Amino acid sequence: MSETVKNEETEASNQTYKELHRPASEFETREEYLDHELKIMKPKRWGLNLPGRDFRFEWEDLVPAIAGTIGITVMYSAVMAAWASGLTEKWDHINLGAEFAIQVVRVEMLIPALLFCIISSGFINPRANLAGNHGPMIPLIGAIALAGAHPLALAILLGIFGLLLSYVKGGSRLVNLTSSGVAGGLLVFLGFMGAKSQITSLFDWAGGLQSKHALDYSLGYVAFFILLVNVILYAYLAKVGKRWLAIPLCSIAAIALAFGLGAGLDLQFVTEPGIPNLNPVYWWGSTEQGWQLGLPNMAHFIASLPFAILAVAMWSPDFLGHRIFQELNYPKGTDKVLMDVDDTMTTCSLRQIVGTAVGGGNITSSWGTYMIPAAIAKRPIPAGAILLGLLCIIVAVLGYPMDVTVWRPVMSIALLVGVFLPLLEAGMQMVKDTQNSQAAGICIFAAFVANPVLAWALTMLLDNNGLIGDKERAKTLSIADRLIIPGLAFTICLIAMLAVGMIKGIPAFL
């Protein structure tokens, strides 16, 4: 490296983002401008970051903001409906219906959006990804409720465990110990299974339209044409380098096709404008209102313990997938804007406790439906986080947009093109040689046998000891990195899953 280049780099390192910023008109392409923005940003961790001085708003930030709003409304609705169903089945004195679920969704969209999207990830620490929803835990919520767990007890335990893990930098250590092969296999499995689930749900929705509306003909073809058109649209956007527009454009296409093919009758606007009760005493103060559970007791904490351990154990592979998207889409020299896994874990832990304390019921994790589109659009966290927080507040207050975002064509297409197809693509990009493909293949196989979290822990242990994958890589690792940390991760995941009955064929022992 010449002395001149070194001097230029030193000078640039001493300059602020505002000083290094250049208008988009000075660049030949929009992509070059966005790459330059990523390279010059120097966000402060746990300090004040201001628009104009430390980051800028670009119209590309609207894409992850819209995508994240659609995704989180869908996820929150699924979570609260599962809690309501499980608790009503578990306790004789509890009867929670659709109105309860809607109000809790609104609580989760208002307070956390303000505190942890706008203030935290927007202004205080743009290195921490937004705290969203823990998608893999949604199928377990019914079992959590039936086990006698309490949402507030679960949130407190999850938050404490998360803060402890982030304090010892455990999240980033686990991410660094996960090879490209293992990570690629994990992403391929999650992408494939998620895509399969949404396609099945879309066909089930279309198939049920005939009886629901007493039609003389079947509308099952609606799902096929929605998927066909969106596959073509997604492929075109990928070809022209505009894949980050997939969620809004494909969602609009799904709405237009559903109405054009006669399925519009299924969309009903029932959620009126309003603000939920934000008094924690209303939600947790007695067994006659809110969650109708009262404050948690020791039995509630014991029942919640294995699920809290499991949720935190599942954070690392979740965070890993989101950071990988940034690394794959951002140019070199942008380490300062990559999400910090431990800071994200801290934010998720605090958001879990605060959000549930004011009446929520979400189980949180890194916000994938925001981060994945943001990475594809080559945008850093802060500006989109602020826009997303504002959109969530607007949607929660207006009410009616919630009905659109949870409508099956919008929900399935948004998740397909915004999360699961990019997951598949990223996973395949990471599997570049025979050694990586071996680790990826075993990770996928183990995920089918058990589940993706246990598969990640097992293949990480095997890979770091040279039993699969790159044998030379194993020789460079310390005993702690080869045996102790991966072994503990596998043991904790296995015990937690055995406790709650997540291993097929083995009943829960707790």
Automatic annotation (TrEMBL):
<feature type="transmembrane region" description="Helical">
    <location>
        <begin position="406"/>
        <end position="427"/>
    </location>
</feature>
<protein>
    <recommendedName>
        <fullName>DUF3360 family protein</fullName>
    </recommendedName>
</protein>
<keyword id="KW-1133">Transmembrane helix</keyword>
<dbReference type="InterPro" id="IPR021794">
    <property type="entry name" value="DUF3360"/>
</dbReference>
<feature type="transmembrane region" description="Helical">
    <location>
        <begin position="244"/>
        <end position="265"/>
    </location>
</feature>
<feature type="transmembrane region" description="Helical">
    <location>
        <begin position="215"/>
        <end position="237"/>
    </location>
</feature>
<feature type="transmembrane region" description="Helical">
    <location>
        <begin position="174"/>
        <end position="195"/>
    </location>
</feature>
<keyword id="KW-0472">Membrane</keyword>
<feature type="transmembrane region" description="Helical">
    <location>
        <begin position="439"/>
        <end position="462"/>
    </location>
</feature>
<feature type="transmembrane region" description="Helical">
    <location>
        <begin position="298"/>
        <end position="316"/>
    </location>
</feature>
<feature type="transmembrane region" description="Helical">
    <location>
        <begin position="104"/>
        <end position="124"/>
    </location>
</feature>
<dbReference type="Pfam" id="PF11840">
    <property type="entry name" value="DUF3360"/>
</dbReference>
<feature type="region of interest" description="Disordered">
    <location>
        <begin position="1"/>
        <end position="21"/>
    </location>
</feature>
<feature type="transmembrane region" description="Helical">
    <location>
        <begin position="381"/>
        <end position="400"/>
    </location>
</feature>
<feature type="transmembrane region" description="Helical">
    <location>
        <begin position="482"/>
        <end position="503"/>
    </location>
</feature>
<feature type="transmembrane region" description="Helical">
    <location>
        <begin position="144"/>
        <end position="167"/>
    </location>
</feature>
<keyword id="KW-0812">Transmembrane</keyword>
<feature type="transmembrane region" description="Helical">
    <location>
        <begin position="62"/>
        <end position="83"/>
    </location>
</feature>
